[in-house]
C-alpha cells in the first residue's frame, strides 16, 4: 500500500518523532543512505516558483542515488492540457514518486487518488509539510529537543503556519500564533492541531496581540503575501507593519532565535539586520529542507 505525504495531519506523535530522528541520522551519516533511491526516478511538478524546494529536492534525490525530472507547469505549456487525474496516472507509469507544488490542495488529493506511487506535497494553498519538518529539525538541533519549547508564529496565518501547527503539535512543541485580525489561521486546521496537541501535552494559543509572544523560545515569520495572493503590498502594509519581526520585538519577547521559511522580504515582515544576526536560524532551516525531505523520501520509498 503506497503512502502519500500531503499534510502530516493523520500521523501519530511516534511516527513524527521517528521521522525527525531519521532526518537527524541521514544528515549525520549520508553515506549510509546513498543507495536508498538507486534506480528510482522522481517527478517534481511545480505550478508555482521555487528556489529552496526545487533545488533541495533535486540535489537531495541525487544524494540518495535517485534521479529527478523537473516539470515546469508555470510556463503554461503543460497547464490545462489534460485532466489532473490523467497527468498523475501517466506520471506513475514511469516515476517512483511525484513531488508537487500546486495552487490548490484538492489537486494533490486528485494526484494521490490517481497515482499508484507516493505523492509528496511541496507546498499548496493550505500546507507546507516539508517546511514544517525542516523547521522542527532546526529547533531540535538548536535546543536538543522539541517537547516543551514554545514557538511563536507572527504574521499571516497561512500554509506554513498550518504545517508548523500540525508538526509542532505532534512533536510536543507549544505554539502561539499571532496575526492581525482577519488574517488568522484556518479554524478547522487549528482545531485539528489542538486535538493532536492533546496527545503530546502541547498547547496552542491564538492572539492578535504581540504581548502573547512574551516568554517564547523562538519567533517565526513568513511573507505577508503568499504566492497567488495579488493584494497590493501597500494595502496590507498598514495592517501588518505593526507585526514586523524586529530587534525590539525579539528583546521584548525574550526569544533567543528567529526563523523564516524564506523567501524573506527584508524590512517588511522581518528586518534585514535580524536575518543577518546571530539569532537567525534561516540558513540552517534552508539546509535542513534537504535532510528532512530525504527522510521523507527514504521512509516512503524504501519500504
Ligand atoms: N521555503 C520555500 O519553500 O522556499 P521556495 O519557495 O523557494 O521553495
Ligand atoms: N506562505 C508562502 C511560503 C513560501 C515558501 C507562500 O505560500 O508563498
Automatic annotation (TrEMBL):
Belongs to the aspartate/ornithine carbamoyltransferase superfamily. OTCase family. It catalyses: carbamoyl phosphate + L-ornithine = L-citrulline + phosphate + H(+). The keyword Transport does not apply. InterPro entries: Asp/Orn_carbamoyltranf_P-bd (IPR006132), Asp/Orn_carbamoylTrfase (IPR006130), Asp/Orn_carbamoylTrfase_sf (IPR036901), Asp_carbamoyltransf_Asp/Orn-bd (IPR006131), Orn/put_carbamltrans (IPR002292). Keywords: Transferase. Its EC number is 2.1.3.3. Residues 4-141 form the Aspartate/ornithine carbamoyltransferase carbamoyl-P binding domain. This is Ornithine carbamoyltransferase. Residues 148-298 form the Aspartate/ornithine carbamoyltransferase Asp/Orn-binding domain. It comes from Alteromonas genovensis. The keyword Transferase applies. One of its GO terms (molecular function) is ornithine carbamoyltransferase activity. GO terms for biological process: citrulline biosynthetic process; L-arginine biosynthetic process via ornithine.
Amino acid at each position: 500500500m503506497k503512502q502519500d505525504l500531503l499534510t502530516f495531519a493523520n500521523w501519530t506523535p511516534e511516527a513524527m518523532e521517528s521521522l525527525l530522528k531519521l532526518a537527524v541520522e541521514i544528515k549525520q551519516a549520508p553515506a549510509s543512505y546513498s543507495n536508498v533511491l538507486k534506480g528510482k526516478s522522481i517527478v517534481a511538478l511545480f505550478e508555482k516558483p521555487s528556489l529552496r524546494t526545487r533545488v533541495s529536492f533535486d540535489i537531495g534525490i541525487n544524494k540518495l542515488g535517485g534521479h529527478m525530472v523537473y516539470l515546469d507547469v508555470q510556463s503554461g505549456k503543460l497547464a490545462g492540457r489534460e485532466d489532473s487525474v490523467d497527468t498523475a496516472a501517466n506520471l506513475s507509469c514511469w516515476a517512483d514518486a511525484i513531488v508537487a507544488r500546486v495552487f490548490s490542495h484538492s489537486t494533490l488529493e486528485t494526484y494521490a487518488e490517481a497515482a499508484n506511487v507516493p505523492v509528496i506535497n511541496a507546498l499548496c494553498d493550505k500546507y507546507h509539510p516539508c517546511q514544517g519538518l525542516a523547521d522542527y529539525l532546526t529547533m531540535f538541533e538548536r535546543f536538543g529537543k522539541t517537547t516543551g519549547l514554545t514557538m511563536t508564529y507572527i504574521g499571516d496565518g497561512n500554509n506554513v503556519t498550518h504545517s508548523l501547527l500540525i508538526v509542532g503539535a505532534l512533536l510536543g512543541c507549544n505554539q502561539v500564533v499571532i496575526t492581525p485580525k482577519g488574517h488568522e489561521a484556518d479554524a478547522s486546521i487549528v482545531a485539528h492541531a489542538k486535538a493532536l496537541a492533546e496527545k503530546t501535552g502541547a498547547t496552542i494559543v491564538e492572539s492578535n496581540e504581540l504581548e502573547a509572544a512574551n516568554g517564547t523560545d523562538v519567533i517565526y515569520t513568513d511573507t505577508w503575501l503568499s504566492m497567488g495572493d495579488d493584494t497590493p503590498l501597500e494595502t496590507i502594509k498598514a495592517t501588518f507593519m505593526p507585526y514586523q519581526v524586529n530587534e525590539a520585538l525579539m528583546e521584548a519577547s525574550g526569544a533567543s532565535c528567529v526563523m523564516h521559511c524564506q523567501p524573506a522580504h527584508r524590512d517588511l515582515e522581518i528586518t534585514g539586520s535580524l536575518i543577518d544576526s546571530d539569532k537567525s536560524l534561516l540558513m540552517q532551516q534552508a539546509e535542513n529542507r534537504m535532510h528532512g525531505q530525504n527522510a521523507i523520501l527514504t521512509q516512503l520509498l524504501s519500504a
